[in-house]
Amino acid sequence: MLIRLMIQKYFYFALLVFCMLMLGSCSYMEKVREYYEVPALMTVPGEKVRQIDILDLKDVEQTKETKVVPVESELDDITLSLAECRAFTLENNLDLRVQLINPSIAIEGVNQEEAKFEAIYSGKIEFNNTDMPQSSLLDGTGINQYTANIGVNMPLRTGGTLSFNIVDSRRKETSVWTLLNPSYYTAPSISISQPLLRNAGRNVNTYRIRMAQYNSDIIDTRTKLQAIRIIANVDITYWKLYATRKLLEVRKQQYDLSKALFEQTKRFVELGLKSKIEVIRTEASMAEKLEAIIKADNDVRDAERALKRMMNKKALGMRTKTIIVPATLPDPIHYKFDTNLVVNNATENRMELLELELQLAQDNSNIEYMKNQMLPIVTMEYQYNINALGEDRHGLYDMLLDNDYNDHRFSLQFSIPLFNEAAKSNYRRAIFERTQRLATKESKEAEIENEVLNQIDKLEANWQRIQASRQSIMLTDQQYQTEKKQYELGFASSTDVLDAQTKLAEAQIMEIVAIAEYQIALVDLAYATGTLLGAAKVELEPIVPNQ
Q1: Taking a C-beta distance cutoff of 8 angstroms, is the pair 346, 525 a contact?
Q2: What digits encode the pLDDT tens for the residues 100-146?
Q3: Omega before 70 cis (within 30°)?
Q4: Domain 209-362+427-528 is classified in which CATH homologous superfamily?
Q5: pTM exceeds 0.85 for this model
């Protein structure tokens, strides 16, 4: 009879649970099903990673039947200033976007360490139904009991743990000898466990939070350094594009001069004033100038493509044929720098030195932590709880409020290593690492000073190159005009004119290169001091990916 009643009871309970599940939302059941499903494993064919294919050039050759589909909408030829190129880079550059996610990742590391001090709510509900036979003349004892145990554990920043716990139980027996049947029992308690030496105190227990925060700051310095490098590379690429376009103009100008000389020479030969060898010389010079134009034009496309990749602007991708014309023109100005001020500025702003300072702070925290780990383990524990028992809830709570029955437990545990060599070794290692870091910092300061002084000298040298190239242009242009007149009068050969043309072109190219390298040297000097050129500051905002 008892067994049948128990079966009916569990059957009704199971039926109730089943109905609740059926009445639940289908989306919830779908989530439960997805939770227990194993996600599909990505499989890679063996030949994909073990076989190296060949490139058949005929397969990728464009033919008349090939239908060219534009990859993206293209902009018309565009004129961009240096500030606009910087703005597009800050907004769209993929490398910069990758770097700006790193601070968000590092901040989560700090949050994880902070979360270790969150309170933990725990509970356990237990139901027990037993029927034990007896070896005496007494009837068997049946027990029907449920117990609920609920508590909160609070990790403390001092290293201890504070716990609040309450036990509530109802017990019913079939034995006639039990005085309270059913009986109710409860026992709220509070306990604290606190280390006294090793792992004791806020300084030690917040050690990992500080390390995570320092690491987050280090990531910020590296992100800023990468951002400065990316923007500086945009400036450098911009001036390289300017230089390649100017070089292309010079190559075209030289070709036009060679072509004009070729036409003039043909007329002289037709009139019998020059020999045919002069025509061959001038025509060969035209071919050389045409080859130089082709190479210069390819250099322009390479520089444009590099700038497009950095800006990553929509409708201005690397596959587009949009021509970019630099709008910002160089305006070289001669500077006389105070080397002490520039070096001090670099020492203050370079992110590498700030990173080393943060690492030294980490080393100091690490030394303090390892020093604490050499101490013995001494732990104090205390627990206080109130006991209450009654035949009903009312009597139970009355006894609980009277607080007639309570327990006090106090313990002191200790553990002392005999030699403690591992902890001592970790402490010595932390000291050695800090000493090494100090030496690294001194070396880095010397390296930065050397880099700054080299950039100042390089900037001065490029300024002198600009002056020299301008003087050379004046002289070579006079020489070219003189040789041309001598050739027209019959006192010089076409070789002399072509040589003068080449020298003039070389002088013009030297000026263009010197001006571009002077602008690049300014960028490099700013980078060496941990800053950027320009009138507007750059504010970096970490990217928080969508969850």
Answers
A1: no
A2: 888 998 999 999 999 999 999 998 889 888 776 665 555 556 778 88
A3: no
A4: Outer membrane efflux proteins (OEP) (1.20.1600.10)
A5: no
